[in-house]
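INFO  loader      accepted 1 record
INFO  loader      residues=182
INFO  predictor   begin
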Amino acid sequence: MAIGAMIHTFTVQLADVDRGVYDELSLRVARHPSETDAYMLTRVLAYCLEYEEGIAFGEGISSTDEPAVIVRDLTGAITVWVEVGAPDAERLHYASKLAERTAVYTHRDPAKVLGAWAGKTIHRAEDIVLRSFDPGFIDDATAAIERRSAMSVSVTEGHLYLELNGANFSTAIHEVPARALD
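INFO  predictor   done
INFO  writer      dumping tokens
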């Protein structure tokens, strides 16, 4: 954990109907001093939306060796590499070679994120999915974050319903392949 990192605790009720995943999670999230609330919340949502056996948060925003969220199998091999924000094309190229599946969750304008990748070499770019949320969703939800947060994450038919410390939010989960602009 980075010096000066603030610890946030999230108690999550997860009901992902689309994937048939139902669980109660207790997450301790170290927020690096340079990490925004929007980035942290997107990272927590990515964890929930990718939740499966072997999932963990990566080493953090300052690590170049690991993504924000990572899934390993029982042998320790990386099966899923999940970036948050706007990773560069070179990082995605590396990730796609290393992991069976690569995904990106962004709290930014997806067109700008995709634009930064246009024309760049990205291994299996057609298999990398960029997921984003409706404009304003993340910004609105960050206002409800506390050091200890209770949240309910429900997903059905590609729509996310979030209850965060008594406040309710909803958004479509938008998905586009990394090669959408080619």
